[in-house]
Design a protein that fits this description.
The protein is α+β, with helices and mostly antiparallel strands and 130 residues long. It has helices spanning 12-24, 48-59, 105-108, 112-129, and strands at residues 62-67, 73-79, 82-84, 101-102. It has four helices and four strands.
Length: 130
């Protein structure tokens, strides 16, 4: 059973992507500031931007961000007008996906550690698909 935001309206292809990612999200792909809280019970924690940009590579569409109280953005995808957030399960509350700001990898990947985590996730995903 899927619980991430938008799971009711998405294709089998997106469900397949989620299933593959659920096997490869790990502490070393989690945002460093959250890594000490990452666990297999909460695998989406700290994985949002790298996951959203990987999904964009696969399906196209746009990545948007919800501004969080700490000033960071939680990223999610919009593909063919369908909104979904493969990493929303890390939150106890439902986020507001309206009127969000588009996010760009050029901005996010200025942080070398984030770019490296993205490349690691992408490499693992590509091995999973083979």
């Amino acid at each position: 059973m899927y619980r991430f935001y938008g799971h009711e309206n998405i294709s089998d292809e997106i469900l397949s992507i989620y299933d593959r990612l659920s096997h490869i999200w790990a502490a070393d792909t989690c945002a460093p500031r959250m890594r000490d809280r990452w666990s297999k019970d909460d695998p989406t924690l700290g994985q949002c931007s790298i996951t959203a940009f990987l999904v964009q590579d696969i399906l196209g569409g746009r990545v948007y961000g919800i501004e969080l109280p700490d000033g960071n953005y939680h990223c999610f995808n919009v593909v063919d007008c369908v909104v979904f957030d493969l990493t929303s399960e890390q939150f106890d509350e439902t986020l507001d996906y309206e009127d969000c700001v588009e996010q760009f990898r050029e901005d996010h990947f200025r942080k070398q550690e984030k770019k490296e985590r993205y490349l690691l996730l992408k490499e693992r995903y590509e091995r999973e698909v083979k």
